[in-house]
Write a structure and sequence with these properties.
8 strands; single chain; 45% helix; 10 helices; alpha/beta; 6-stranded mixed sheet
Length: 265
């Protein structure tokens, strides 16, 4: 619904026919990177080419709802203290490939929506930021080569001086991971990088990587490790660990139950 936009597509050495498809759209500007550099470098490059005073970042596996840009621009124009606005994922996945993907979308929807308001990180998959602020902080750190925690790191730096807002009305359909192994691998990789950031900051972020969910991770591991003693006289121990794991994010599970049913949960 917002018409005054400039579309810049950064091709980070794609191996399919994406670049050819982009060229078919006259309003799109295609920027080809000389070597594969990762999302941080790709986004920084796209920002350098942007002519507008507001930059909207959008990941390649997301389709925005029609009013998303309108809502983000309106928030930035009417709230002078806010310099960046993040959106959330819709309940339904962009492409429903598996049960894992359907659940993951509901989980991410709830996590992001429940932490709407002022946040300390930028959910850069759907995000609008004032260009002068982005440039003031030097953009994302190019040292991050994968789709990792470059948005959290930048958001923490920005939030020390300015305000970042998560708006649950700004939504996009996300093609989440459809295999549990891929979800585990991605979350493990990000956790390894988040821990040093949180230790340096001396607290968790106030987005979806909360202290309670950190606790849930610990007790999910303890539950798995204690399963061998489930059929011994110490059988209560893994059950207690599992109960704490569930209670640490109980509202999310209740939300999933309400949206689906007990079988799905």
């Amino acid at each position: 619904t917002y018409k005054n936009i400039e579309v810049i597509v950064v091709n980070d050495k794609s191996t399919d026919n994406s670049a050819m498809l982009v060229k078919e759209y006259n309003k799109s500007n295609l920027v080809n990177l000389k070597e594969k550099s990762g999302p941080a470098k790709a986004r920084n490059t796209g920002a350098e080419y942007a002519k507008g005073n507001i930059i909207v970042f959008l990941d390649s596996d997301i389709a925005l709802k029609k009013d998303a840009i309108t809502l983000m621009v309106k928030r930035l124009k009417t709230s002078k203290d806010i310099v960046a606005v993040s959106g959330i994922y819709a309940k339904k996945p962009l492409i429903r490939d598996s049960l894992v993907e359907e659940y993951r979308n509901l989980q991410e929807y709830y996590w992001k929506k429940s932490s709407s308001g002022y946040i300390s990180a930028i959910a850069v998959s759907i995000c609008a930021i004032k260009k002068k602020v982005f440039e003031e902080f030097g953009g994302f750190k190019d040292s991050y080569r994968g789709a990792d925690v470059e948005d959290v790191e930048l958001g923490i730096r920005i939030s020390k001086k300015y305000k970042i807002y998560s708006d649950p009305n700004v939504q996009g359909y996300h093609d989440s991971d459809d295999k549990l192994s891929r979800v585990f691998k991605k979350m493990y990789t990000r956790a390894i990088q988040l821990v040093p950031i949180f230790l340096k900051r001396k607290k968790f972020e106030n987005h979806y990587a909360t202290a309670n969910r950190g606790l849930a991770c610990i007790f999910s591991a303890l539950t798995a490790l204690s399963l061998p003693i489930l059929f011994t006289k110490f059988y209560l121990l893994p059950l207690i660990f599992f109960l704490i794991f569930i209670l640490s994010d109980l509202r999310m599970y209740l939300f999933v139950f309400k949206e689906k049913n007990i079988t799905f949960l």
